[in-house]
Amino acid sequence: MKLFNSILGFMLMTTLVMAQPTLPDEEIDVIKDFEASLEESKKINVTPELPALDTTSRQLTYALPSRTIQMQYLPPRIRPLAIRKDKVDPSYNGFIKLGYGTPNRPYAELAYNNTKDPKYDIGGHLKYHTANRGSLEHQRFREIGGDLNGSYYFDQGYAVSGGLGYDLDEVHFYGYDHDNRSEFRDDIRQQFKTFAANAKFFNGVKTQGDIDYHAQFDLYTLTDNFASNEFGFDLEVGATKWFNELHPLTVIIDADFTVFKNGDTRNLHNFGIRPSYTFHGDIFKAKIGANLTSSKDKFRVFPDVEVSANIVGNQLAAYLGADGGLYKNNFKNLTDYNPFLVSRITPVNTDYYKFFGGVKGNLRVVDYQVQASYKIANNLGLFVNNPLDTIRFDMVTDSVNIFNIEGTVEANPRKDLRLMATLSQNFFNTTNQLAAWHLPNLQFNLGAYYTTLRNKLVVSGEVFVENGVPYRKIGTNVEDNLGALFDVNLGANYKLTKRIGLFLNLNNVLNNKRERWKGYETFGFNVLGGVTAKF
């Protein structure tokens, strides 16, 4: 088979070779070399043109999903350029003040307050002050007091605060005729011992609803050397809703309890609700509210309204308003004002309506305020000598209309000089009593404070003027007046170092010994000097 295939392939190849034509065998002579060339092309100029504008208005609609993105960032720091930094005095947590003066007058004071931690603050205060004028029997006093207070701010947004305090105020009934009478000190010594406590719950930060809230109480117990004891408890709950962070709507509910004991028990309890709304405009403010009170089953409504407007920027503003309420004539309030009161009293309320108006403003270096008011006071407390024990005072009450004009001016004509002046004039119109016993008509205060020696020395001068108060002659219904007050004080404070300083006070340099209360002349000229330290 292989042989057959080989013979067949040879025969096909032979046939193909024999079929090719015969090529010529002559010689070819090249006469001229071939040169290729192209004809010159014709250039076609084309000018490009923009396509026609499409002026058809088309509205495109996008559907984007809403999504709130939470971002945390640090507030920016703005750093002014080329401005010299003012030197900031170092801050201190506490201070000590120690001194001594005449008449036989030691003084000591210690205070501490830590507010550097943002979550809490705590502080305390101690004071000791006494004086003894040996030339007048038993003209002496002693003050010892201390308190501790603090606040704590929780991460949840609310906060609590509270405090405890104790005060001992010792005076003596020295207002007798010293030429014809002498007393044992223990018989005429009066000591007011007061223990106080308070607590408050409130929002420590701004709430989501822009509502401020608080609930608090204040209590005290007061005892004296003559079997008097008084307990007071005041509970208050309130809330304020802010609209646009400018206009507050406030409601406060208050319950004030007083229990006085001296042989028998006498109570005085007041309850009140105080709603108000204040609108702040661009140049004016308007407040409308009321003080609804209840005491001894008697309900009263007092106004709480005020309108004010800026007439000439901050240079001149005018205001007009009315308010009122209940003021407690309890043992604590009365003895704070007149420590020579009898120990057996009946607590009563003074209810009053007050209508007022005035102007205030700033004239470059002068801040001023002038106000006139008219007050209608029922059961106003007045003071007369007890006819059986003339060195003590009784409280009598009367319905009194009071017209008052008062003004305050504060000026800084220079950076190192500050001037202050206040004036108050009362016009009393009593109903049953001949006069407003032991209440001053005219009071005037003037002060000047000058800083020198590179802020190391501050010198001061103060003047206090008060009219002679009216009093009822003992055993009669005849009016008389005590001597006027004209008191001039001089003072100086000098910094030895940033922490240590010296002070010196010259009080009543004119040696005015007027009687503020019938039978009780003041100390006259007295001195107090010492050292202060900050830590």
Report on the structure:
The protein has three helices and 27 strands. The chain is mostly beta strands and 535 residues long. The strands form three sheets. It has a 22-stranded antiparallel barrel. A two-stranded antiparallel sheet has the order 21-22. A hairpin with a 7-residue loop joins β16 and β17. The protein is globular and about 70 Å long. The relative contact order is 0.08.
Question: Strands, helices and their partners?
Answer:
Blueprint: H1 2-18, E1 94-102, E2 105-114, E3 120-133, E4 139-153, E5 158-172, H2 185-188, E6 189-203, E7 211-223, E8 229-243, E9 247-262, E10 264-280, E11 284-295, E12 298-303, E13 305-312, E14 316-329, H3 331-337, E15 348-363, E16 366-385, E17 393-414, E18 417-430, E19 442-452, E20 457-466, E21 470-472, E22 479-481, E23 485-495, E24 500-507, E25 515-517, E26 520-521, E27 526-534
Antiparallel strand pairs: 1-2, 1-27, 2-3, 3-4, 4-5, 5-6, 6-7, 7-8, 8-9, 9-10, 10-11, 11-12, 11-13, 13-14, 14-15, 15-16, 16-17, 17-18, 18-19, 19-20, 20-23, 21-22, 23-24, 24-27, 25-26
